[in-house]
Amino acid sequence: MRTWKEFGRVFADPVRSSDRFFTILARPNDVGMARLGLAISRKAAKRAVDRNRLKRIAREVFRHKTLPAWDYVVTARPQAASAPSAALHESLDGLFDKLVRRGAPPRDHG
User: Fold this and answer.
1) Are 74 and 24 in contact (CB under 8 A)?
2) Using alpha carbons only, how large is the chain's radius of gyration in Å?
């Protein structure tokens, strides 16, 4: 996902899954494939190197998952910046699995 319009569509009416490290917002798309958007703020990780680490881990977990054709936006919480990578991988893996199990698409407003 690249444009603010695409992000805004997900933020407007998402299915949400979260834990102490991340929140993932999701919404079905018409593209026919899963797409990832990252919204890792300075509030969550002050240093650029930490934000980039969180994004790298999110991309890696996303690549290894088989997901339905939805748009996913990953946001981080401040605890994620100092957490070990293994814990972050496990967190994201579980959140994506929870969204897939839920499977019920949100109501579509157009």
Assistant:
1) yes
2) 13
CATH of the domain at 9: 3.30.230.10
Enter the pTM of the model: 0.90
In a domain, 108, yes or no: no
Residue among 74, 68, 5, 1 at smallest CA distance from 34: 68
Q: What's the length of the chain? A: 110
Strand boundaries in the chain, DSSP class E: 15-18, 22-28, 35-39, 70-76
Within a domain: residue 107? no
What confidence score (pLDDT) does residue 110 get?
A: 43
Is 105's pLDDT higher than 60?
Answer: no
What is the total count of domains within the chain?
Answer: 1
Nearest alpha carbon to residue 45 among 18, 87, 76, 84: 76
Residue type, 91: S
